[in-house]
Amino acid sequence: MASSSPSSSSSSLSPPxxxxxxxxxxxxxxxxxLREHLSSSSRPLQGFVLLQGGEEQTRHCTDHLELFxxxxxxxxxxxxxxxxxxxxxxxxxxxxxxxxxxxxxDYAVWMGEIKPLTHFQEKYKVTQVFYTDEIKEVLSNQxxxxxxPLLFLLHGLNTDSxxxxxxxxxxxxxxxxxxxxxLHPILTECRVTKSNLELALIQFANDISTEAHVEVxxxxxxxxxxxxxxxxxxxxxxxxxxxxxxxxxxICATGDNSAVLHYGHAAxxxxxxxxxxDMALLDMGAEYHFYGSxxxxxxxxxxxxxxxxxxxxxxxxxxHDAVISVMSPGVSWVDMHKLAEKIILESLKKGQxxxxxxxxxxxxxxxxxxxPHGLGHLLGIDTHDPGGYLKGAERPKEPGLSSLRxxxxxxxxxxxxxxxxxxxxDALLLPALESPSVSxxxxxxEINRFRAFGGVRIxxxxxxxxxxxxxxxxxxxKIEEIEAVMAGVPWPIKKTALPSGNGQV
Length: 505
Prior knowledge:
Layout: H1 21-40, E1 48-52, H2 72-78, E2 86-90, E3 96-100, H3 107-110, H4 117-124, E4 128-131, H5 135-142, E5 150-153, E6 157-158, E7 163-164, E8 177-179, H6 183-192, H7 196-219, H8 226-241, E9 245-246, E10 251-254, E11 279-284, E12 286-288, E13 291-292, E14 295-300, H9 307-326, H10 333-350, H11 358-363, H12 367-370, E15 415-418, E16 421-423, H13 426-434, H14 444-449, E17 455-457, E18 460-464, E19 469-471, H15 479-486
Parallel strand pairs: 1-5, 3-4, 5-8
Antiparallel strand pairs: 1-2, 2-3, 6-7, 9-12, 10-11, 11-14, 12-13, 15-18, 16-17, 18-19
EC number: 3.4.13.9
Domain Aminopeptidase P N-terminal: 18-162
Subunit structure: Homodimer.
């Protein structure tokens, strides 16, 4: 990463080329999994996978078009940026087809050149391209078997949003057989583990986001507005990374706002003035060619940690580092969440905010008072990538654990966020202080002193490898690193080499 002074911005990064082979490989992965499923079920290897891409949306009843972002499953398989497309894959021949909207002539006046079908065939590296009003005819003619063609449509529950994928619809679909059950779980599972080409895009999104976080960190000053921090991040990732989209709405929380887990929405719009003594919790991640990042940095807005800030921050950092140190294929994510909780509780006890037996605190689920959210989530084309709960899997019921976005064991190729946090949220803390089962664990005087503290979260994006994991996020994490960067030291900080002999620097 290029260094910069506190008053200037720069980047050593530039947007990488986007290989459409990435989406060809995604289609092959789906075909292989689907064909294997059909064979094991003694079903014929025929029919079409058919997905409908996203449509442009206007703002309520106006003619204002919101900036379009492709539906994620469609993006995964075809990489198409434009709205109004359909995509099909012939299971028997392995051919891939796109269906483009037939645009009116005046589109060229208002929106630009109307591209020929060959443009999309070359750009997206598919076998054939037709118009959307030809779907019925093309699929009927392509079908090489006897009887009515079968369409595998996308329909299934997203376990993060509790919403269902919308199956494709087109004029004439009633002439086909449709299967609404087979595709969704298979395609979702394909998205759970990433190819090297996918990882490269996620890594770039991490790298440009890391640069932006560092830029914001070193320019943060008491008296600024939270939205100025958001603005600096968005500018850097777009200016130097070509990232027109963010993975999610930026959370730029300072002071007591940092105890609001999803701060930054329209009713809490990153508009507070930064005050002396505040902690900042900045959860921001850029998206590049659909693939995202999700990074949280916490730091004091004046550049120097107080004793109380150091106590809470170190508790969270120790949990973050401990989880990453033991992540590998086969490790239970529920166990990782509990590990993070236990380390935070032990740290709070050491800091004299808590008293008593930590194992008993774990049994009583005290950790959920300080970390009510899950430890992390799958990451990829969506910030909360699907596949966290396999069909039939039950969510844990206990406080804190019930918020986990996955309860799976880790797999090689997964990208998952590690984001422990410690917050002082009155809505949770006050009932706990009065609860007969857990009130005995609190040092009430010390806890009350922290009630306006807010919270700390540290979040990195981690790829599970064959033997362990790789942290894709390279932000300053140690207290001394953060204070140095905020004082103007270039990042990454160059280590001073020890001369041979006396061991003196």
